[in-house]
Specification:
CATH superfamily of the largest domain in chain A: Pseudouridine synthase I, catalytic domain, C-terminal subdomain
Oligomer: homodimer
CATH architecture of the largest domain in chain A: 2-Layer Sandwich
CATH class of the largest domain in chain A: Alpha Beta
Shape of chain A: globular
Number of domains of chain A: 2
Largest interface: A-B, 18 and 18 residues
Helix content of chain A: 10-25%
Structural class of chain A: alpha+beta
Number of strands of chain A: 10
C-alpha cells in the first residue's frame, strides 16, 4: 500500500529535510517513526523535494509504502504520537502504486516572510529580520520579470550540475500586512524550483528593495546564466514550503 | 545614573525571568552583559516583575544603576550586540534616582494566545495548542466577572504567602483573528497580578470554554478564596507580558 502524507514542520532545529548520517533531519525523524510502526523494518519516504536547514514547511508532501494496510486516520495518530512536537502529520491518504511524490509534482508554492520593522526576538527563527525599510513597489516590479518560463541558472546553486535549468514561475505576489505595516510576505508559485532558487531570487529582490539594483536588472541577470550576476542567498528562516500540487493521479487508487 | 530598559524576549529557551544559580534565565543573561559593559563589576537589574519559564515578553521593563554616564543609544547598541538573539533591548532612557521599575508600576498588560484549530508545529512555543473549539462567547462573559477589584486568592499560586491578594483588573478583551478564525488572543490589563494569576485565570476560562464550568462560576470561585476551586494552571507558552505602565516619574530626571 502506498501512502501520501501531508506534513508541517518547524525547520529551526534541523539540518534540513534530507537524511544525513549524523545530523538531525526531518526525513530521518519520520523514517525512524515509520520503522517503529513497521515492526522495526526500514521504510523509505520520498518527498516532493528537500528543504534547506532552517527552512519550514506548512504543507510538505511525501509518499512511502507499507506491506500491511493501516487505516490512514489511525496511522496519522500513531505517527503524531511518536514524532517530536516540531513535525506534524496533517493528513494521510492511500494513493495509487504509480503515484510518486516528487515525479508527479505539478506545482509548488513557497512564501518568504520579511520584517522591515524593529528586530523581534520572538520571531527570529520564523521571519527574516531585515529591520530596515525596503522599496516594496520596486520589488513588486522585479517579481514580474521573474514570472514565466526562464533559464534560472543565475539563481541556482553555484556548483549545481543539471541538464536543464529551465523552470516556470506561474505567479508571484507581495502580501502586505494591513495591521503590521512593516511585515511583507512574498509568494512564488511555480512548476518546480532549483536548489537555492527561491533564496537566491529573494536575496536579489532584497538588493533591489535596498536600491542597490533596479527591477529591470532581473532581465540581464537571467540572460547572463551566471550565478555570480545575481544577489546573495537570502537567510533560510524566512522561507516556507507552503504547498505542493498534484494532478488527480492521487485519487486513482 | 539610573537607566530604564524596555526589552522583549522569547521565553522558550529559559527557566524564567528570575536569576537562579545554575539555570539559564533572562535576568542572568542581561546582568552578564551589563557586567561586561561595567568593567567586570556586577550590575543588578530590577524588573517590573518576573515571568515564568516559557513565558514571553513583548515589552518588559527593568531599571539598573551605572556609575558612569553612557549615552542611552550607545548603551542599547552595546547591550544588543552582546545579548543572545532571543533577548532584545528596544529602548533605554535615563530616569530619576527615585524611580523603581517594580514599585512604580501603575498597570501591566498580559496577552494569552490560543489556537483552537489544527496543531501547528511552527507556533508550538508561541501559541497554546488547544486544538479544539471553545465557546468563546461564554469565555467573554466569564472575563467580565474577573474585571474590577477582587481578592484573587483562588487564582494565586497554591502556597503563596502574601498579606494582600487584592488586585484590580481594569480591562479584559478577547481579540478574534478575522483571517484566522481559529485563533484568539485574550488580554488582561490590571494594576498588578499575583504569581500564576493570569495562567490560573486562563486555565479556568478554558474550562468554561470547554463547557465544564459556567461563566457565573467565576463569582463563587472568587468568593471561596481557595486555589482548589479554580481550574488548572494554563500552559506558559501562550502567555506574553505585553506592556508595563508607569506615571510620569520616569521623565522627572
Amino acid at each position: 500500500m502506498r501512502y501520501l502524507i501531508t506534513f508541517s514542520y518547524d525547520g529551526s532545529g534541523y539540518k534540513g529535510y534530507q537524511k544525513q548520517p549524523k545530523a538531525k533531519t526531518i526525513q530521518g525523524e519520520i523514517e525512524k517513526v515509520l520503522r517503529k510502526i513497521n515492526g522495526s523494518k526500514a521504510v523509505k519516504i520520498h518527498a516532493s523535494g528537500r528543504t534547506d536547514a532552517g527552512v519550514h514547511a506548512i504543507s510538505q508532501k511525501a509518499h512511502f509504502d507499507l506491506k500491511k494496510e493501516i487505516d490512514p486516520d489511525k496511522l496519522k495518530h500513531s505517527m503524531n504520537s511518536l514524532l517530536p512536537g516540531d513535525i506534524y502529520i496533517k493528513d494521510i491518504e492511500v494513493v495509487s502504486d504509480i503515484f510518486h511524490a516528487r515525479f508527479n509534482v505539478k506545482a509548488k508554492e513557497y512564501i518568504y516572510k520579511i520584517n522591515m520593522g524593529e528586530y523581534n526576538p520572538i520571531e527570529r527563527n520564523y521571519v527574516y529580520q531585515y529591520n530596515k525599510k525596503l522599496d516594496v513597489v520596486e520589488m513588486e516590479r522585479a517579481l514580474k520579470y521573474l514570472e514565466g518560463e526562464h533559464d534560472f541558472t543565475s539563481f541556482s546553486k553555484a556548483d549545481e550540475e543539471k541538464e536543464d535549468f529551465t523552470r516556470r514561475i506561474v505567479q508571484t505576489n507581495i502580501i502586505r500586512n494591513m495591521k503590521k505595516v512593516d511585515k511583507i510576505t512574498i509568494s512564488f508559485l511555480g512548476t518546480g524550483f532549483l536548489r537555492y532558487q527561491v533564496r537566491n531570487m529573494m536575496g536579489t529582490l532584497i538588493e533591489i528593495g535596498e536600491g542597490k539594483r533596479k527591477s529591470e536588472d532581473i532581465i540581464t541577470i537571467l540572460e547572463a546564466k551566471d550565478r555570480r550576476k545575481a544577489g546573495k542567498t537570502a537567510n533560510p528562516e524566512g522561507l516556507y514550503l507552503k504547498d505542493v500540487f498534484y494532478d488527480d493521479v492521487r485519487q486513482e487508487v
